[in-house]
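Bit of a strange request maybe. I'm writing a small parser for structure token strings and I need a real example to test against, not something I typed by hand. Could someone generate the tokens for this chain?
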Amino acid sequence: MEQQFPFQSSPLPYSYVALMPHCDANTLYYHHDKYYAEAVYELNRLAVRHRLTDQSLSQLVTEDYNLPAVQLNRLKSAAGSVYNHQLYFDGIGCKAGPPPFNRLTEAITTTYGSMARFQQLMTEAAESIIGSGWVWLVAEGNKGIHISTTINNEVVPLHSVTPILVLDMWEHAYLTLDHFNKPSYVDTWFSLIDWARAERRYLAALGPEAVG
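Reply from user aminoacidic:
Good idea to test on real output. This should exercise your parser:
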């Protein structure tokens, strides 16, 4: 996830047609090559304008800068959009299937009672967002996991939590395919989660002792 200037669009780890029939090629193309790519372009432009080319992506997301409020909001929005989209696309696999049993799914089941209950709570979180935003599953080191939401392109506090999963709830992610049926979109996303990648992020959040 860490990047340095000049920031670049991360390539999709699958083809535009790989998610069909769950996600059509046009939706995926415009989501990745238009909305996400434009955010990368905007972030590079703002980094140059404000002389922040020595800052990493995570710094641009988390650090405060002495800028006018309007300019700071634009910078944070662009950085958050790039960060969130990279995690979102990276977290999707091209093979639909049920979640495997691993450390992460064991933690989810322990915390929420079942995977079905977890999916229900993620759906409720998605439906609770007024306007655009993101739904997250984050880990607080070895203190447990929890569901969180952010509005617009805000990012969860990376100084205290590690993102494990993120769900894009901007309309461009689901409107063409599912119209305004958010539960259907969440169900599609849930079936395409790359649980192996999510597991690696979760184990990294737990620290070296988790690997052993």
